[in-house]
Design goal:
CATH architecture: Roll
CATH superfamily: Hotdog Thioesterase
Number of helices: 3
Radius of gyration: 15 Å
Structural class: alpha+beta
Shape: globular
Distance between the termini: 22 Å
CATH class: Alpha Beta
Mean pLDDT: 94
CATH topology: Thiol Ester Dehydrase, Chain A
Order of helices and strands: HHEEHEEEE
Number of domains: 1
């Protein structure tokens, strides 16, 4: 197993504390994963919503960065890390105070880059956002 697979198994199993930023932002962990894909459900806390009960777009971007990183971890090389070099979120519908199904997937992996995308769906299956990122592969210590 690679460091990414080990870490994803720990997060899925609840066997490790989540990083402070994840705890502070209430991003949560991970429900399931396999090579090239990840999945989680997430319920927004009331204090994370706009005054009209909608999801704050910047918060959706933080969730996107997390799920896209999880997806990249499924194919990350054993001898390297990665860093987000580009993140784009397309907002399709207004998100509300309801459970979201979030799925990330690897679109392509080259020697130096991992391309990932994610969908955010409300309980009725309607797409509310789609996110895209490029993860630059960097050697450990680099």
């Amino acid at each position: 197993m690679t460091w990414g697979a080990d870490r994803l198994d720990q997060i899925k199993g609840g066997d490790t504390p989540l990083p402070p930023v994840v705890q502070t932002l209430k991003l949560g962990g991970l429900d399931d994963w396999g090579e090239g894909w990840v999945r989680k459900t997430w319920t927004p806390a009331p204090e994370l919503l706009n005054s009209d009960g909608s999801l704050f777009g910047g918060y959706v971007a933080a969730l996107a960065d997390q799920i896209l990183a999880f997806a990249a971890m499924t194919v990350a090389p054993a001898d390297a890390l990665f860093r987000t070099s580009n993140l784009k979120v397309d907002f399709i519908r207004v998100g509300k105070a309801e459970i979201l199904a979030i799925e990330g997937r690897v679109v392509a992996r080259t020697k130096g880059m991992i391309h990932v995308e994610a969908d955010f769906r409300r309980p009725d299956g309607e797409l509310i956002a789609r996110a895209f990122a490029q993860q630059v592969i960097v050697p450990f210590g680099g």
